[in-house]
């Protein structure tokens, strides 16, 4: 590889961490579009970045943790557990009248005063599994810590998946708002969480400290409702071993319409050229087999990939009518035929300009309907379970809020990007 | 882009007592990932433990002085990066890392990721990372943790331009090392 190629490769590498200038971006795009080995190496650099983020964690021994805790002053200053200290801090804020509505504060004071009375309790068995921090309101003596690990509890480092529409993450394992702040936004179905510790049984729930994968949420979630119907499930049990999502992969899942984002797993091999991340979801119903969604650096790369795929099935831009059940392509975004300098159109195979927001369909070599679409830098592929192009196209375009308006992306891209 | 995380009802720590509770909460939340970052940055169990301790000593000092950082995770990574890089400068990078790597503590668990990557690829990547200077390695790890180029510049104490060059060269070196070693074609 010559020096010139290396310069572009370095430019591409810089793009991971810094915004490239428009001139740099244009120059890079031009070079990559004509250099297949360079595209492959850029994809390899992206794979390296993902792999670094997924290197396994190292664990400090429990004795090491205890040493650091003691020497750095992060051990609590009495025998009480860290969780209890946080509860005390929260309660001090409460007594000072901070950040709490007066009515609810008045209702909660007795319980919190009870908490004060029991804080130095010596019966906390372990700093790892603190006892419930909300003692029964009917007694000034704390209940014995349950310390119960329900059968099927999740061990540290287990990857679990959110299986309800919205899951709340809190800063402490309790539903008491005076002790535990709520994190926003809620976590949606399919979000993957790494278990850090738990369970802590409190308020009738089993709580786990988790880190959401690809999202900043780190806090406590309840694993199931009071009846034990799960809110999170162990992926390793629910399916074959599934790797956790990188940030880009999690964003791809989050960008899909919810009924499409089911049983999703990262796809890390044989990604389309130029793709930086991919996820495949197994919808597996009568109409739809799979949905693949791929992230590109920008909308132009996504649109180029889309047009290449359609061209490989003999479909040229603006031909046919998928809604009527014939192979074809159409732009859903404006731009066909009018050159733009802002990246909303591309040239393809000496033709164009073509709008980057497109949707198309074809029946593949197996006689199965396929729909493809681009939404910003994302390219979506829907593999049908039958030959009906119109039905699959309608599914891809349906949106929870009703019909998709003119100029709007297909409903399957919930976020439109 | 990562979504912003909004704490809806949390009260900011103000008094030293609140600050101390916040530091303890930060320790519980972040000591694991910071240890991994430091262990991978320094390639040394004992050094990683020492630097982890130093980072939290400094955080405790800040909190006791009533200066609890607003974004504790970013603050901790910045301090940890500085500590790891300073240590790296004091040592020759020609340290026999291969030898050390061979005796390195095993990762916690056989994670699903490591199964997917394959042990060979993981080991190759670790070795390629280990061959980098301390500042370049820290910068790559921060990038993989989702920090932006600007944040990394601040953490390692270099200009944007110098950080961009450092990161770019580090990425290229890792790639070439993986290709050269045959781990990745």
Provide a brief overview of the structure.
The complex is a heterodimer of chains A (417) and B (185). Chain A contains ten helices and 16 strands.
Write the layout of secondary structure elements.
The complex is a heterodimer of chains A (417) and B (185).
Chain A (H helix, E strand, L loop, with lengths): L2 H12 L7 H12 L2 H18 L8 H10 L10 H14 L6 H17 L40 E4 L3 E5 L11 E7 L3 E11 L2 E8 L5 E5 L9 E3 H4 L8 H8 L9 E3 L10 E6 L5 E8 L3 H14 L15 E4 L13 E4 L2 E5 L2 E6 L5 E7 L2 E7 L4 H9 L20
Helix pairs in contact in A: 1-2, 1-3, 5-6
Chain B lengths: L5 E2 L8 H27 L2 H20 L7 H19 L6 H6 L9 H6 L1 H12 L3 H11 L4 H8 L3 H21 L5
Helix pairs in contact in B: 1-2, 1-3, 1-7, 2-3, 3-7, 3-8, 6-9, 7-8, 7-9, 8-9
Structure, described:
The complex is a heterodimer of chains A (417) and B (185). Chain A is an alpha+beta fold and 417 residues long. In chain A, the strands form four sheets. Chain A has a seven-stranded antiparallel β-sheet with strand order 8-9-10-16-15-14-11. Chain A has a five-stranded antiparallel β-sheet with strand order 6-5-4-1-7. Chain A is built from ten helices and 16 strands. Chain A has helices spanning 3-14, 22-33, 36-53, 62-71, 82-95, 102-118, 235-238, 247-254, 299-312, 389-397, and strands at 159-162, 166-170, 182-188, 192-202, 205-212, 218-222, 232-234, 264-266, 277-282, 288-295, 328-331, 345-348, 351-355, 358-363, 369-375, 378-384. Chain A is globular, with a radius of gyration of 26 Å. Mean pLDDT of chain A is 75; it is low at 88-151. Chain B is mainly α. In chain B, 70% of the residues lie in helices and 1% in strands. In chain B, helix 1 (16-42) packs across helix 3 (72-90) and helix 1 crosses helix 7. The relative contact order of chain B is 0.11. The model of chain B is unreliable at 1-15 and 91-117 (pLDDT under 50). The interface between A and B is large, with 68 and 80 residues.
């Amino acid at each position: 590889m010559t020096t010139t190629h290396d310069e572009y490769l370095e430019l591409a590498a810089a793009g991971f961490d810094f915004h490239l200038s428009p001139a740099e971006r244009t120059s890079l795009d031009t070079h990559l579009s004509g250099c297949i080995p360079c595209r492959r190496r850029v994809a390899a650099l992206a794979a390296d970045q993902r792999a670094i983020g997924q290197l396994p964690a190292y664990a400090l021994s429990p004795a090491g943790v205890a040493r650091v805790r003691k020497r750095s002053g992060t051990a609590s200053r009495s025998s009480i557990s860290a969780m209890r200290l946080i509860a005390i801090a929260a309660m001090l804020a409460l007594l000072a009248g901070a950040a709490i509505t007066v009515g609810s504060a008045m209702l909660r004071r007795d319980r919190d005063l009870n908490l004060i009375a029991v804080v130095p309790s010596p019966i906390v068995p372990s700093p790892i599994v603190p006892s419930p921090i909300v003692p029964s309101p009917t007694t000034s003596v704390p209940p014995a810590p349950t310390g119960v690990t329900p059968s099927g509890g999740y061990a540290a480092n287990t990857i679990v998946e959110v299986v309800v529409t919205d899951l709340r993450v809190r800063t402490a394992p309790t539903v008491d708002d005076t002790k535990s702040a709520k994190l926003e936004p809620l976590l949606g179905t399919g979000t993957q969480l790494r278990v850090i510790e738990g369970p802590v049984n409190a308020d009738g729930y089993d709580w786990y400290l988790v880190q959401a994968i690809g999202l900043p949420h780190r806090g406590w979630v309840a694993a199931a409702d009071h009846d034990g119907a799960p809110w999170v499930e162990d992926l390793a049990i629910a399916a074959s071993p599934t790797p956790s999502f990188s940030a880009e992969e999690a964003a791809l899942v989050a960008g899909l319409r919810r009924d499409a984002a089911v049983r999703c797993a990262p796809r890390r091999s044989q990604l389309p050229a130029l793709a930086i991340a991919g996820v495949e979801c197994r919808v597996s119903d009568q109409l739809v087999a799979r949905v693949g969604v791929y992230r590109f650096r920008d909308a132009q790369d996504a649109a180029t990939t889309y047009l290449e795929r359609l061209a490989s099935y003999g479909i040229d831009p603006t031909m046919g009518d998928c809604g009527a059940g014939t192979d074809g392509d159409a732009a859903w975004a404006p731009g066909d035929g009018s050159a733009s300098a802002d990246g909303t159109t591309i040239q393809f195979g000496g033709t164009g300009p073509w709008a980057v927001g497109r949707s198309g369909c074809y029946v593949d070599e197996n006689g199965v309907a396929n729909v493809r679409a681009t939404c910003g830098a994302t390219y979506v592929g829907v593999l049908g379970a039958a030959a009906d192009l119109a039905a699959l196209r309608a599914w891809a375009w349906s949106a929870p809020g009703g019909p998709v308006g003119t100029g709007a992306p297909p409903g399957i891209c919930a976020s439109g990007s | 882009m990562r979504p912003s995380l909004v704490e809806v009802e949390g009260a900011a720590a103000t008094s030293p007592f609140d600050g101390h509770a916040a530091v303890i909460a930060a320790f519980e939340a972040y000591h694991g990932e910071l240890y991994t970052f430091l262990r991978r940055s320094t390639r040394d169990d004992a050094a990683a433990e020492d630097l982890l301790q130093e980072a939290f000593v400094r955080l405790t000092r800040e909190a006791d002085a009533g200066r609890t950082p607003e974004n504790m995770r970013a603050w901790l990574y910045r301090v940890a990066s500085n500590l790891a890089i300073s240590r790296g400068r004091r040592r020759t990078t020609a340290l026999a890392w291969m030898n050390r790597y061979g005796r390195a503590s095993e990762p916690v668990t056989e994670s699903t990721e490591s199964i997917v990557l394959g042990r060979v690829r993981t080991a190759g990547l670790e070795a390629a990372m280990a061959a980098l200077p301390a500042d370049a390695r820290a910068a790559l790890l921060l990038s993989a943790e989702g920090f932006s180029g600007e944040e990394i510049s601040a953490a390692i104490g270099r200009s944007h331009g110098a950080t961009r060059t450092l990161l770019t060269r580090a990425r290229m070196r890792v790639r070439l090392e993986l290709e050269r070693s045959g781990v990745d074609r």
